[in-house]
Amino acid sequence: MYRTLVLVMRPVCCHSIRSRSCLHKAAFAHRRPFSFCVPAALVLQRRAYSLDSLSSGPGRPTLGSSSQQSHTERTSPSTALTHRNLSAVALQGQSRQLCQYDFLDLGEVDENVRRAQSGKKKSHLIVDPHLAKLVTQHLEPEDAKCVILECNPGPGVLTRSLLNAGAQRVVALEGDKHFLHDLQELEGHLSGQLEVVHCDFFRMDPIGKGNMKPPVTSSEKLFTDLGISETSWTDDIPVKVVGILAPHQERSMLLKMVYALFERLSVYRYGRIELNLFISEMEYLKLMARPGNMLNYRAFSVLWQMACDIELLHKEPRESFVMSKPSKSSKKGKIANDHMCLVRLRPRADLFSGGLTPSNASTLLMMVKQCLARRKVKLIDRLNQWSPDSGSKLLSEVGMPDDILTGYVYPEEYLQLFQLMDKSQQFTQSWLYEEILENTQREGWG
Amino acid sequence: MEKLTWEKKNKLKQQQHLQKKCSGTVKEKPAPKSQSSKSISKMLPGTTHKTISTTAKKTTPLTQTSKKKKTLSDQIRAAVYPVATSAAATVKVVKPRTVSEEKKKDLKNQHLREVGRIQTDGDADGKAKELERTLVQKVDQWTSSGMSELLHDGDGEANACGDFQQSVRSYLEACVFTENIDRAHRFLLSQHRMRGRRKLLNTDVYNIMMRLWAKKGMLHQIGRMFILLEEAGLKPNPRSYCAALECMGRNPNCSPNVITRCLSRMKEDGISVDDLFNQSVFRQDERDMVLKAVHTIQPDYLPGLNPNTSESYTSLVRDLYTQRADHQYPKLDFTQAELQERFQRQLSVEQACTVTIDSVETAKPVTENMTKMREQLTKHRAQWRTILLQALRESKMILVNTNTKDYRLNLYPYLCLLEDKEYVEIMIQSVANLPPSGESLRLLAADLGNRVFTKYAVRQKHQNHIVEKLANIYNTYTELLAKDTKEFNILPREKWCNLEMEQSSGPMLQGGELSWPHIITLELGTHLVDMMVKNLKINSDILNPSHERKLIPILYHMYTFRSTRQIGFIKPHPILIQMQQEATETKLTFDSYVMPMLCPPVPWTSVKFGAYLLTPTKLMRSVDGAVQHEELLEKCQNLHAVMDSLNQLGSCAWRINKPLLDIIISIFNDRGSDKLDIPPPLSEAPKIPQFNPHDHTYTPSEKAELRKDVVNAKRKCSEMHSLRMNALYQLSIANHIRDDVFWFPHNMDFRGRTYPCPPYFNHLGSDVTRAILVFAEGKPLGPKGLDWLKIHLVNLTGLKKRSSQEGRLEYANSIMEDILDSADNPLNGKKWWMNADEPWQALACCKEIASAVRSPDPTKFISNFPVHQDGSCNGLQHYAALGRDVIGATSVNLMPCDVPQDVYSGVAQQVEELRAHDAERGLKVAQVLEGFINRKVVKQTVMTVVYGVTRYGGRLQIEKRLKEIDEFPKDHVWDASQYLVRMVFGALKEMFTGTREIQDWLTESARLISKSGHTVEWVTPLGLPIIQPYHRARTQVIKSTMQCINLQINYDAKERPDTVKQKNAFPPNFIHSLDSTHMMLTALHCYSAGLTFVSVHDCFWTHALTVDTMNKICREQFVALHSQPILEELSNFLLKKYCTGPITEAKKKKYQEYKTLMQLLAKVPETGEFDLERVKESTYFFS
After folding, report:
1. Binding site residues of A for S-adenosyl-L-methionine, as ranges?
2. Do A2 and A60 form a contact (C-beta atoms < 8 A)?
3. Which residues does chain B have within 8 Å of residue A214's beta carbon, measured at their own beta carbons?
């Protein structure tokens, strides 16, 4: 059945190349809110090389109805990549179920914007196909072993782009019910590469103890449902997360995630989860601030730099994104050059090799937070506060001058200091060990 | 361009034409050019025509740039506008004409709409105009009625540099106090030399210096100051001349010529000699010196007495003040000599500033470990004192020299105000009081700073020789209160004022002491905390010899994190906590104002003077640093009624109910009891789970759970500790004064609700503290007294809420056996009292009933017991009365009924009906809730809805209730509470339609007022001015070596108002201001009827004998209060306040908003049919 369909379609595709202008018009005429029509221009470049690797696929159920099957029956990694590129163009007036080999339409910007803005919750969304493709390239979706969690895809532009690029398994975590339907429809048209879950990644594992209702879930439930099991820290990256942090939650999310990372709680229970997040440039500057930059060098920069390889993948002006539920009053010029930065936060495999464990990590967190609450104080004063008269000895062991300020100490040096402290008798008697980094507003996140 | 000019011409023609045709009455020069609009607006003073014409013209320049389509419509609007205002009818004439000019059909439609809109605009405009006209008339009336001082305040400029001025003045005062003339002089000169700062100074800043020179008799220096004043472009005020004359008075050989010159120059400045004496504050012998100087020129001069004759009382209390023939003010059961002796005792307490008393834990047996720990602590304290003393001296040495730039404020003078030892004592005291979980640096610093200030204020009074004068006046004042003197027909405040007037020589009692700006207090406090953290140390092996010995600090500074903010905390070292807990020391040191007063409080006679003898007290409490309330009060001329009611509440003498206190202390020292609300000691606290972070056997999630447990256990411990300490303080204070009679001075919050000043122990407290307080004065029960006691007891149990008085009495009689048993065997008997809502008060009442019943003649039994009468849902009562809402009034007992109406049950019932309906329709939540809806679930929400609880808060309240029900399925708590809160709100809206309308009107008014950039202000029917202190937050950073403190200041009147808070808080605040007015009125009338009366907001207390009289007064005053046109007056006040200022016609939008505001304010909600007089017959109104 599959072969026949392909055979039927081939001439159509060829035809479409020839008569792109005609098709283009057709696509416009045939506008539905959820249209799979492809603007011809987009398809052309891809097709040029994809057509030749055409026929090497096992027989697969192609109809949307049968893709309701359970997730366990999944396309094998080797084939999907090739097949994804075998996209077809829906014919004018022809209404049929989409098969997995179809090249998914990323939509027109205007239309995407309209859909994105109809969202009920406030968040930034990707609407521009070019941007989506760019992000897709950075995510290296062809890595077959890796699951991609996409947070709040909204109109699903990036989702489609990821699938087009051959991602084996994309999980769309959508917190806004409004977008759920369309995403689920897409899920229905595919054969398991996409799973849609009503879940807000950024509200996962909440503070309260009450019953959780979608979109709020626990990471445990989500990962069990998805069938993702715990992996060892030194294993390969099991999951990549891609998402956009809303400006009001940036800092608290970054803090929450880094706490979880060090103690291997929440999603980090399942291994080295890689985050690919769009954050504001201002936050990025803080995240990446180096010692000596007294304004931006903060506790969370130290912790993230200590824990992860951080890479700036891409910078994109904020205007490229669309605010769902747009608000009238935009805050005026926080930073002149208002960009969103796509940052990859890939946890280091050797983080827990030198004496740091998820158990004593809470003390490290406490230490770093106390040290960097102010950057222009002497490190020795802090150390002496925890264990009187021990500071100078400790500093000389690490080879740091006595008068160094906390804002001049590198993340690796903090880690080294901590490892030394943790071994010493005097420090473990200190109140630092009795204090628990408690945050009334984020209970359970240590 | 051509087109544009054509359009312009055409429009002008059209306009002129229209005006000619339609508005013969509007005599207005048609503007030939659009630019001229400005000149017109200048020419015509604030009339309606002006506004309208300019608005019309303002649109012109706009239209020129826009597209043609828009221009046309605008043009028409511009043309129609002035006409529309003159008469709505004329618009109709215009309409066909404009339309006929149009050709395009779609455009035509648009214009039809446009014109239609204009027409309604025109109508509205007509109304607005009408309103403005009436307003102008009203303003004339008001200004003549003398209410104006509250309206047009020029606070803009005065406020702008207020904070800085206050800092400078308090700095100078501090220098003056320590006689550091040199520093003060250098400082003022440096401020004066910097142009930027000079602008911020005012005459009073210079006066401080003049005063100082006057004391030294240095006339030439004062002359220099006058020159500086002139340089700064300031005018000398009466106080400046006072200083000059004082200096001349001090110089025995000052030539009369000099004085004459001074007096004549004063005259030139428009200041009379009388002004000097009326508008200045005199300290020490200043007044006599000034008088001496004046006498050299005018030997016969007598200062004209204060023209303090603004005795215009509002109609509510006019009779009370003017017809006193049948008033009988109560006397105290003390002789004058006794009262004078008590004054001396109180004075010495306040002079010491702190009181050290025995804790009630003294009764516990002393263990060996305890003795050891106590010794250790004492030993260490001695060391700490020495170390701190040294550190303080060192830091002063550093500070005195480091300040190279004189213009900067320096803490040095503030560290010289007290003896070094006193600072050290304050610091040591705060170490002892630090809770084990630590205290945020900001609070700790504020606490320390305030203590220094209080001590300084007391010392300042000494220095100004106020104490002697105070003693003189107080001793004479006692004749008003004592039992062995004649009857007086005047109120305490009047007596006090008269006495002050008689003894006018010497210093004035209100010495004009400045309070410090909040920042100074904090800076000083932080400095002291820093000193403590750096210097206080202890050996690390003191408890555990196995530890290596080294000196470790007993306090450490760290940060805690809330969301993304970090908060500096000072925490005691675990070793210190352990020592303190094991030592359980038996002495407690308090600030003197924490204790009740031992003599009747000083009556409030002005905003700044009253309550305690020496300790500075605010008439109106406010957030630290908020000054707008005080400014408003000072502007207000007649606060007599308010002050008199505060004085009345403070005049009530109290005693301890000793048998009750002993029972409570015994339980407290045993193991406490959660059920009886006696906090157990920390030994009863859950153990903090020990968990070793290095233990690898735990999985991360188990560890997270464990950590959560630790955090919870810690939190629980610190909660328990603070409850326990609070109870310890209350009981210890009570125990300390167990044989005494004492008084609670009162002040009020910014809405006029009254509170006793002593913070821990007072009659507003918990059931426990209320139970151990009785009136010092006893009165026979009289014929109905015993019945009242019984009814009171039943009320305290919380049973029989829906029974009539007779029913309650019957019930009480039926359980006399239980009552007597409770009284006789409280802890070993049947313990009936323990199940009451308010067990301790119930027990006290049982004992009182038992004694009365067993006395030979219960009617003659002398009872000291206070009987309470509670308003039933007081907030709704006021709303119902305001709206004259029949249904609402009935459900909150304004209408006489045979049995008390219970609004909570009513709401519960209605909610239940709706629920049943929903359940039938298959709604899951409704089905789950079956059988769970009752009075208790909805009560708190209903009660607080009046006070503006939001759905969010309401849901939390209901959630709490539902969680308390064990049988209720926990999974549904959230849904169910969400559902219920919706139902309750709905039910309330239906039952209290009038309430909702008024609430909405108030909210909307506040919203518009706030949006227009103003703060909501109003005046209670008793004349108390109220202002809402909610503004947008601004951050202020206080830098210190330890950390920077970020202050979020959201009360700064210079910032724009916080609209959300302003609007949400207005209805509840307004209702609170009314209930406080009702309470004050009742208090005043009770006083003149000779009753003992105190209040806990809407719960009134008196002797059993006088309950009936109080009830009568309470109802009469409620009727009297609501017979005033309260909402109309509010509307008038707001209109006058916010709608008579110069209108800025700059923007049409602004004007539109202004108009809407005016219309809204003028549109007082309509009232219903309820006959207010019925309240007088209602038994259950307060019961």
Report:
1. 124, 126, 174, 200
2. yes
3. none
